[in-house]
Design a protein that fits this description.
The structure holds 3 protein chains of 3 kinds. Chain B has 2 domains: 2-112, Rossmann fold (3-Layer(aba) Sandwich), CATH 3.40.50.12280; 154-376, no CATH class. Chain B has 14 helices and 9 strands. Chain B has helices at residues 2-12, 26-32, 61-70, 100-112, 214-224, 231-245, 252-262, 264-267, 280-290, 313-317, 322-330, 334-340, 345-364, 366-369, and strands at residues 15-21, 38-40, 49-53, 76-80, 92-94, 155-157, 166-173, 185-191, 194-202. In chain B, the strands form 2 sheets. Chain B has a 5-stranded parallel sheet with strand order 2-1-3-4-5. In chain B, helix 1 (2-12) packs antiparallel against helix 4 (100-112), helix 5 (214-224) packs antiparallel against helix 6 and helix 6 packs antiparallel against helix 7 (252-262). Chain C has one domain (2-36, 63-306). Chain C has 11 helices and no strands. Chain C starts with a helix and ends with a helix. Classes of the chains: A mainly alpha, B alpha/beta, C mainly alpha. The interface between A and C is large, with 70 and 86 residues. Chain B: Residues 117-140, 345-376 are annotated as: Disordered. Chain B: Residues 350-367 have a biased composition (Basic and acidic residues).
């Protein structure tokens, strides 16, 4: 069942990617090639002095670290969800503790100002 | 065959036009795009027609040329109650109040191939010569200098909010960006999406929109709401403004009700763009209150603040995140904005020179800035 | 055999969904704006043709490969996400034991696709849109995973087919109404719409789309609509019982429910205001995420007491 399912997903992925590629790369109605002034980045009239790529100042950087903690936590939650009904109260307690610890993490992060845009 | 069908269908599509709006034409342009036969393009790349509405300032001529060349083929320009900028061969003009028919005709002719796509105006040259020079083909000597791939890279600077020294990106924004008032051109230095410094290059074009209670408030809301993602509500406001100007009755209760449920007021951060003890949210509340006024009379123009000597727009924008800055700029009517954005003589003169200086300094500062990270 | 059927139905489902979404996109805004309703099937097709005809542009030295791949990836993710949705009892293109894990993977890679799309243009407005989207896309994804886990609890399985079957007694929307709303928010975020459109907003002149035109814009547009359809079908399946329903055949029920969610999403995209990104990030972490925890606990307690 798992293998068949995976094969099905792969077939769908292949078909969808092919369709999107054909649409994206289809020849357009215009034969003219792009010129340098045509390629100037759009700024509403002006031209930039520098490339836009830069060491970008990401304002939410600390948030992404907290995000990783939660993302890891999902690994634990997937199997937990399957056995929850069998295990009953014990599973409930475990996840309750786990979520409580993570919530403390959010509160701590909030106090430290990691959700501020800086 | 397939191409022919494609052409027929494309010809029936609404004409995507990018408006470059000059003095006194903002309201007319807003009304124009309420027409379902047109699409207002947010970016010049989405447009097939550059619609120049109203007179073009001398200083804006280069920007118009650049915008024109950024458009993709097939493309055309229509000068609506405007004076064509030199270098445009055989410009199409339209002096009627309603240019929709003219735009549609040009659009269809372009699609069907009856009208040639307009050629570039600017020379087909890279912004800076660089190809093949230097050890790595970057255009300079050794590891340094030159302009790799035609432009230099941004250089580091300290940040206003956390002092972290990352790249400060400076670029001119405007004068024809959809979310900025027409004519306003700012040189903005960004770190990430936070504005470090803003410098006025050109003030907004005068619009001569007399204060008219409800109509003014509706137009202001119509320009403000798209920033909050409420394009449909904005259309409702602009349509109501148009009806009211034409003397038709409108239903204002619905507008207020919809705006209440949209959470528009709650979405605006409080305390930004503070001028004379009113912030952006209060100014929006003022518009909402003005909806109750009779079309003429009630609050007069002076109540929506006019002599604003001490405040300057560029100071209000400093340290603001991009979307907050856009909210601030759009919370003022054009006249107020012009008074907030005084043209300082030296600003205008040094516009070009300052930017060149900036680049040169960046190059010289390459070595020292590499160790400039100060941490938090 | 039924799997082959599902694989053949899926593209048709997606195509019909895209057309429906495009028609709604043209019909709903005038409705919200209080203008006369003009729903037409021709409208979206003419717009698509217009885009297909235009020249595909570029900026100075973009990351061309990423720029081409981003919309393709986005579209493909929408299709893969849809592949775990059962169209009728037993008719599913990818019947995986861990269906919602695959769906979750599609969600997270969407952030990558949107980011790449904005980043590769080498132009400031798309670049800001790209980085801004990540700030909202990441925590929004967390929300959805908590909500989906809560949906998986009563089914005792991560397979989407089991989640549907577990709703025979009561739909998940009754079990966790707040979860349904949170999942709709995720739908808006995945398809870059209205209050969650932080990648392509007006204040960035179209954000990641500001530099694209022609075929590139057409593909991006289709991919966004495809993602909208995919997330609508998933919502209908996980919260509204999917193909379950009396009298009518299962497939019809799924189509009806998907259409309903589609209308709600397109409408919500027009009527709610968008917060500045920092405020939205705070809202998600400090209000919505704790709410999703509570939802999970509530479902757990309910199962222990009455399950």
């Amino acid at each position: 069942m798992a293998l068949e399912g995976l094969a099905g997903a792969l077939v769908i992925a292949f078909v969808a990617a092919s369709i999107a590629t054909v649409i994206r790369l289809a020849p357009s109605g215009s034969a003219e090639s792009l010129t340098e002034p045509q390629k100037t980045p759009f700024l509403g009239g002006g031209a930039p002095d520098t490339h836009a790529w830069q060491r970008y100042h990401i304002r939410y950087y600390p948030m992404t670290l907290l995000f990783i903690a939660f993302e890891m936590e999902m690994m634990f939650m997937y199997p937990w969800a399957v056995v929850f009904v069998e295990e009953g109260g014990k599973a409930m307690m475990e996840m309750g503790m786990f979520l409580a610890i993570l919530s403390v993490g959010i509160v701590y992060g909030w106090r430290e100002g990691i959700f501020r845009w800086q | 065959m397939a191409i022919a069908i494609l052409r027929r269908l494309a010809g029936a599509a609404p004409a995507p036009a990018f408006p470059a709006i000059g003095a006194g034409m903002r309201a007319a342009a807003d009304d124009l795009f309420l027409d379902g036969r047109l699409i207002r393009a947010d970016s010049i790349r989405h447009a097939r027609i550059l619609l120049v509405a109203g007179p073009v300032r001398e200083a804006d001529q280069d920007d118009i040329r650049r915008l024109h060349d950024q458009m993709l083929h097939p493309r055309a320009t229509l000068w609506w109650k405007s004076n064509p900028v030199p270098d445009f061969a055989e410009p199409a003009t339209c002096d009627e109040d309603d240019p929709v028919a003219a735009i549609e005709a040009i659009h269809r002719a372009l699609i069907e191939g009856a009208r040639d796509s307009e050629p570039d105006i600017l020379p087909n040259e890279p912004p800076n010569p660089w190809r093949g020079k230097g050890d790595y083909g970057q255009g300079g000597e050794g590891m340094m200098g030159g302009t790799p791939y035609g432009r230099p890279m941004a250089m580091t600077d300290d940040d206003l909010r956390d002092g972290l020294a990352l790249d400060a990106y400076t670029a001119p924004f405007g004068p024809f960006l959809p979310m900025l008032p027409p004519g306003l051109k700012l040189s903005v230095t960004l770190q990430g999406d936070v504005i470090q410094t803003a410098k006025l290059l050109r003030p907004p074009s005068a619009q001569a929109e007399a204060y008219d209670g409800t109509v003014t408030a509706l137009r202001a809301l119509g320009r403000f709401l798209p920033i909050l993602g409420l394009e449909a509500h904005a259309v409702r406001c602009l349509e109501a403004a148009r009806s009211l100007s034409a003397g038709k009755p409108i239903e204002l209760a619905k507008i207020r009700q919809f705006l209440f449920w949209s959470g528009a007021l709650a979405a605006i951060p409080s305390g930004i763009g503070m001028v004379e003890d009113t912030d952006v949210r209060m100014r929006v509340e003022r518009w909402l209150a003005a909806l109750d006024e009779s079309p003429t009379g009630g609050l007069d123009g002076s109540a929506t603040m006019s002599p604003l000597k001490p405040a300057r727009l560029v100071d209000l924008l400093r340290g603001r995140e991009w979307s907050e800055a856009i909210l601030i700029v759009n919370s003022f009517d054009t006249d107020t904005l012009i008074s907030l954005a005084p043209v300082e003589a030296e600003d205008a003169e040094t516009e070009g020179r300052a930017r060149e200086d900036g680049i040169r300094m960046d190059h010289e500062g390459h070595g020292t800035h590499a160790h400039g990270a100060t941490g938090t | 055999m039924t799997q082959v059927l599902a694989i053949m139905v899926l593209p048709l489902f997606l195509l019909a969904g895209i057309v429906a979404a495009a028609v709604l996109d043209r019909a709903v805004p005038p409705l919200v704006a209080g203008r006369s309703l003009k729903a037409s099937f021709v409208g979206p097709i003419t717009v698509a043709s217009s885009r297909a005809m235009g020249q595909t542009g570029a900026t100075e030295h973009p990351d061309t490969i990423s720029w081409i791949l981003a919309p393709i990836l986005y579209f493909t993710l929408a299709a893969i996400g849809l592949s775990v949705v059962p169209f009728a009892p037993g008719v599913v293109a990818a019947d995986l034991d861990a269906g919602i894990v695959l769906w979750g993977a599609c969600e997270s890679l969407t952030v990558v696709a949107v980011f790449l799309h904005g980043w590769s243009a080498n132009s400031p407005l798309p670049l800001i849109g790209a980085y801004r989207y990540v700030a909202i896309g990441l925590p929004a994804m967390l929300l959805s995973m908590f909500v989906l886990i809560a949906a998986a609890l009563p089914a005792q399985s991560l397979a989407v087919t089991d989640i549907v079957e577990a709703q025979r007694s009561v739909w998940n929307i009754v079990r966790q109404p707040a979860g349904f709303v949170l999942f709709l928010m995720l739908g808006l975020s995945l398809s870059l719409r209205g209050p969650f459109d932080f990648a392509d907003p007006y204040d960035l002149a179209g954000g990641t789309t500001a530099e694209i035109s022609g075929a590139a814009r057409l593909t991006w547009w289709l991919a966004r609509l495809a993602m909208l359809v995919s997330v609508s079908a998933m919502t209908a399946t996980v919260f509204l019982g999917g193909y379950l329903g009396p009298v009518l055949p299962g497939f019809v029920w799924l189509v009806v429910k998907t259409g309903l969610v589609l209308v709600v999403l397109v409408g919500a995209g027009e009527v709610f205001a968008r917060l500045p990104p920092d405020r939205m990030m705070n809202l998600i972490w400090l209000a919505l995420l704790p709410l999703s925890f509570l939802m999970l606990v509530a479902v757990g307690v309910e199962l222990l007491l009455w399950g």
